[in-house]
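Narrative of accomplishments. A recurring question from our advisory board has been how the design workflow behaves on a single, concrete structure rather than in aggregate. To address it, we present the structure tokens for one chain from the evaluation set, followed by the sequence designed for it. No filtering or post-editing was applied between the two.
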């Protein structure tokens, strides 16, 4: 979805016969809701009844076209709805529908100052935001605040836009005062976080929130410490995030939210300690389902499969009717590559859901959707153990919902590709009937992946080139085409396309990452690569693949300590062979060859044929 708001097309103006008086016509037109899409913060509504009350009995003819309107305390202004005012409002709405948000915002901003109507100020703000005009939106928010100084929404909006514009002087004290004044402290804390969320400098945002909370009356509330934990994590400071989460858990030892944060934020800085704390929590709170599932997942990620399964089996003993736990056991087994266990548990889940589905009329339960999910999962397990035809058959059982059927068709094509039946795979994809542009992109990208894996890269490029020419605004087509060019070592074409993706979507973290990594891996333009990868990390700070790229460019630049720190974080989050290859090479460069060998062999145990890892070990003369 676009970051900009779109005008609701259902409110498009339709002109009526000329026999209507001007003000009557405008009043009837404005009886409809004139709303921005859900992406906007607020929406102004005008109703025929409200407008009729404002116009009075004289058909909307004002005593004075320039009458001064004053705002009464806690009331809307007694606006005389003249033909001029109505004309300007309608002109602004039409301008916005045509995409001219600046003109729409300017018109209503001027009208808001003239009439002192907060609704118009707020509406002008929406138009400025829809057009990406932060300066105009900030000015409109200040007009709104001057008109309605006691309106909490106006106050919070002005603070948030000021913070986004980098105007942070006095912001901590303003937030503290709002928190202390509020009778709903948790809501006030959430509002403070929202105010700071648009700031680009996340470290500064954390400092402001920390100052506001630690000087306020809520500094010891668990909700306040959790807000600080979340803000610290978003700034990249996992150590501080864990410390704040631990304070929250200490303040409320039974808080599931606090326990979940301790586990999530602690995995990269004190994994064993975090898991021990949360294990103790689950003993106190055995019904804390969400936290127990998170703990089981982390145990499985770290290779402690039997402990993870014991956690879920304990939950199942306490709640034998919680059939979803069968699916969870299957997922944990798959994560540990225990494929036979995974199949056993998913078979049990499918049997239960089949009985549920047959026990009542169609649509009486969610068993149909649950079965679709289960068939998709079992197909993946069957693929892993080489039973491709059985996996294909499972995917044919998926009938509901339509998006699941489409996804199953894509998987069937991939399976045929793995079997070497490339033409059959391409035929499946060519016969697919995508419902929208996004689905069409999925078909194109899946086709290119099937062809690429079959070493038919030229054919994949030809298809994506044609698609890019036909639909030049598709980010996924451009991105995948760039990856094919990069694979062919055609960096100029790959870079051209990735920069086009960034122009189309300035927050496309993986485009920044792909370009930055391509430069770093070739050991060229490293300063530029670092800028690109820092931007990718800012947009997706918890993405392990972006961490891997950032650690790799640090290594290329000779900053081994930073490289180790970043790559270790990536490997903890995603212990995959590619990351093991990079981290091991840094260890080797530091002279710790035994550590490098051990890590590489650990990576091979996870993914025996990984090309990056195999090539790295071969380059350093290390036997598998």
């Amino acid at each position: 979805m676009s970051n900009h708001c779109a005008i609701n097309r259902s409110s498009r103006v339709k002109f009526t016969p000329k026999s209507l008086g001007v003000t009557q016509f405008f009043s009837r037109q404005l009886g409809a809701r004139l709303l921005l899409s859900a992406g906007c913060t607020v929406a102004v509504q005008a109703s025929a009844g409200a407008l009729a009350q404002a116009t009075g009995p004289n058909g909307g003819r004002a005593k004075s076209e320039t009458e001064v309107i004053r705002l009464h305390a806690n009331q809307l202004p007694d606006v005389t709805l003249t033909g001029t005012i109505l004309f300007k409002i309608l002109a602004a709405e039409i301008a916005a529908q045509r995409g001219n948000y600046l003109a729409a915002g300017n018109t209503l901003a001027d009208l808001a100052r003239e009439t002192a109507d907060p609704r118009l100020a707020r509406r002008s703000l929406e138009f400025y935001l829809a057009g990406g005009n932060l300066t105009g939106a900030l000015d409109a928010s200040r007009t709104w605040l001057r008109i309605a100084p006691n309106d909490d929404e106006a106050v919070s909006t002005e603070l948030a836009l000021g913070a986004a514009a980098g105007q942070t002087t006095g912001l901590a004290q303003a937030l503290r005062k709002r928190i202390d004044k509020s009778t709903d402290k948790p809501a006030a804390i959430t509002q403070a976080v929202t105010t700071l969320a648009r700031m680009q400098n996340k470290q500064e945002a954390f400092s402001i929130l920390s100052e506001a909370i630690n000087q306020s009356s809520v500094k010891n509330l668990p909700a306040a410490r959790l807000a600080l934990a979340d803000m610290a994590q978003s700034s990249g400071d996992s150590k501080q995030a864990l410390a704040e989460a631990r304070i929250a858990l200490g303040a409320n030892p039974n808080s599931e939210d606090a326990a979940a944060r301790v586990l999530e934020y602690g995995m990269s800085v004190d994994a064993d300690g975090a898991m021990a704390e949360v294990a103790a929590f689950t003993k106190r709170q055995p019904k804390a389902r969400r936290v127990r599932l998170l703990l089981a997942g982390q145990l499985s990620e770290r290779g402690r499969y039997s402990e993870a399964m014991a956690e879920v089996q304990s939950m199942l003993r306490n709640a034998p009717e919680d059939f979803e736990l069968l699916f969870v056991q299957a997922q944990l087994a798959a994560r540990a590559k225990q494929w036979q266990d995974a199949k056993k548990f998913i078979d049990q889940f499918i049997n239960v859901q089949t009985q549920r589905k047959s026990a009542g009329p169609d649509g009486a339960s969610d068993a149909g959707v649950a079965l679709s999910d289960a068939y998709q999962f079992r197909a993946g397990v069957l693929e892993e153990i080489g039973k491709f035809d059985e996996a294909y058959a499972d995917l044919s059982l998926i009938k509901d919902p339509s998006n699941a059927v489409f996804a199953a068709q894509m998987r069937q094509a991939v399976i045929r590709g793995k079997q070497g039946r490339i033409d059959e795979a391409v035929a499946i994809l060519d016969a697919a009937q995508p419902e929208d542009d996004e689905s069409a992109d999925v078909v194109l990208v899946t086709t290119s992946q099937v062809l690429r894996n079959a070493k038919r890269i030229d054919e994949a490029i030809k298809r994506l080139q044609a698609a890019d020419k036909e639909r030049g605004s598709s980010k996924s087509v451009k991105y995948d085409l760039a990856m094919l060019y990069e694979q062919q070592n055609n960096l100029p074409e790959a870079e051209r396309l990735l920069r086009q993706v960034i122009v189309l979507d300035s927050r496309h973290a993986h485009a920044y990452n792909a370009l930055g990594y391509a430069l770093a891996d070739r050991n060229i333009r490293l300063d530029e690569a670092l800028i690109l990868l820092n931007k990718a990390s800012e947009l997706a700070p918890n993405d392990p693949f972006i961490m891997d790229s950032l650690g790799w460019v640090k290594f290329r630049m000779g900053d081994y300590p930073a490289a180790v720190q970043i790559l270790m974080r990536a490997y903890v989050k995603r212990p995959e062979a590619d990351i093991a290859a990079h981290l091991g090479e840094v260890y080797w460069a530091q002279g710790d060859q035994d550590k490098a060998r051990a890590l590489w062999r650990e990576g091979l145990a996870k993914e025996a044929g990984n090309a990056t890892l195999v090539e790295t070990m071969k380059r350093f003369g290390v036997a598998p």
